[in-house]
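STRUCTURE:
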């Protein structure tokens, strides 16, 4: 039978190949066994949500049937909803967990299964290990949906309004709505829908949404807010004279952005902007977390304020784990792929909230986003970033990563290697703190090459050499 493994955030697989009704049932039964091991006496209750991918609502219904078959009550959402909404509701309503049928930013032929733990965040590796070990231990018990509804074990409900109210209370809506200008929101056909538009509209600010409708093929691109997938947003900004573009991924837990010129604001810059906004304009203090592929600039900002800095492996679940311990005095943290978590919300990334918080930062500064980025460069150093996702044989990628770790080069592309770091993959660090990282993906058959350098020219040279080596050149 299919071996099911949870990656950086859930289990993902190709629809009809490994992501099947039978495997969704197996995972859900294992999750039931885990939930009951943690709370033997019951009663038990969960929420089940889903994204806009092909058949997501049917897979969600099947998961709800398995919960019902095990006497676990499931609130099954009646329409797609952002993943952070389910995370919020799990914590807000003290549920035993939440399931989201989503493959996040993966290609359209994938779907996936995320488990949100009772604290309202991604399941930790310790939890997912226990779920994995229980797969196949118990036979699947399932109750047909109509019978489950009659038995009050499944309730089909509209997405509750609590999450929207919490997001609206977190950001300075008065400041946002009273500003002038045009903002373009781009949910990339995902569950972000018109959430940003409906929250931020109603004042002087104009918000327009593109690619708002459901399209399981996502318009022919991956639903990941990276520059190569945001051509429609860039065009809309230039054509309509917008001051900012805000994008969310397929299940709306990641944020992406473009400036007034239709140029990409990378995720390193977004985290830096939000960190400085929370410190300088909101008066907040606390620890900062970054994953292994995040920016040098974030570290420099944290050090300049004397904040404690955590560096974690790639995957937001590692940052979410930090957010659960009050002793960490956590303020903000993020991963390179656009997942950011902030204190006072949920221990989880949230593309809707962070889009609005970025908008708040821009209107508070009273400057175009490109000017804000240049101000950060002047204060903390200029760095440019690129990531390439390469389809190379898994063993070839692993050999490269292990080879660089075991026998690090003295120089790379003519630049002296000053240090090497191996927290997650292999990172070569140069004398000016530029770096290049090679890492085999935990959720996809990809070798990822990340690079941040002190000039565009150096970054381009390093990333090109990195790709050449990854492909065996």
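SEQUENCE:
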């Amino acid at each position: 039978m299919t071996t099911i493994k949870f990656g950086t955030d859930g289990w993902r697989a190709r629809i009809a190949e490994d992501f099947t009704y039978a495997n969704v049932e197996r995972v859900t039964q294992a999750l039931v066994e885990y939930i009951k091991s943690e709370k033997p006496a019951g009663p038990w209750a969960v929420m089940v949500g889903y994204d806009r991918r092909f058949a997501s609502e049917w897979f969600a219904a099947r998961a709800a049937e398995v919960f019902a078959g095990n006497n676990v009550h499931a609130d099954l959402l009646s329409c797609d909803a952002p993943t952070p909404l389910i995370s919020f509701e799990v914590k807000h309503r003290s549920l035993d967990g939440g399931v989201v049928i989503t493959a996040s930013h993966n290609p359209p032929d994938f779907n996936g299964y995320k488990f949100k733990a009772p604290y309202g965040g991604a399941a930790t590796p310790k939890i997912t290990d226990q779920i994995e070990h229980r797969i196949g231990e118990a036979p699947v018990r399932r109750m047909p949906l109509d019978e489950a509804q009659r038995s009050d074990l499944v309730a089909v409900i509209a997405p509750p309004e609590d999450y929207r109210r919490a997001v609206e209370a977190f950001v300075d809506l008065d400041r946002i709505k009273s500003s002038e200008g045009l903002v373009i929101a781009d949910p990339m056909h995902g569950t972000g829908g018109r959430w940003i538009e409906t929250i931020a509209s109603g004042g002087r600010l104009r918000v327009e949404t593109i690619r708002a409708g459901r399209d399981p093929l996502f318009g022919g691109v991956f639903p990941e807010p990276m520059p190569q997938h945001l051509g429609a947003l860039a065009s809309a900004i230039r054509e309509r004279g917008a001051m900012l573009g805000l994008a969310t991924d397929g299940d709306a837990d990641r944020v992406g952005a473009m400036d007034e010129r239709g140029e990409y604001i990378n995720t390193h810059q977004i985290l830096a902007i939000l960190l400085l906004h929370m410190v300088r304009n909101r008066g907040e203090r606390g620890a900062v977390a970054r994953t292994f592929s995040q920016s040098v600039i974030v570290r420099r900002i944290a050090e300049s304020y004397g904040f404690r800095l955590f560096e974690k492996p790639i995957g937001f679940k590692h940052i979410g784990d930090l957010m659960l311990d009050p002793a960490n005095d956590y303020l903000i943290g993020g991963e390179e792929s656009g997942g950011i978590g902030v204190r006072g919300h949920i221990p989880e990334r949230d593309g809707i909230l962070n889009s609005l918080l970025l908008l708040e930062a821009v209107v508070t500064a009273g400057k175009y986003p490109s000017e804000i980025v240049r101000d950060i460069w002047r204060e903390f150093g200029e760095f440019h970033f690129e990531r390439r996702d390469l389809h190379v044989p898994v063993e070839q990628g692993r050999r490269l990563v292990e080879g660089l770790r075991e026998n690090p080069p003295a120089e790379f592309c003519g630049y002296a290697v000053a240090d090497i770091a191996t927290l997650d993959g292999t990172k070569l660090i140069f004398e000016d703190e530029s770096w290049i990282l090679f890492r085999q993906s935990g959720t996809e058959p990809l070798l990822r090459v990340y690079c941040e350098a002190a000039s565009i020219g150096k970054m381009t040279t390093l990333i090109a050499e990195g790709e050449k080596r990854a492909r065996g050149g």
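REMARK: The first strand starts at residue 11 and ends at 14.
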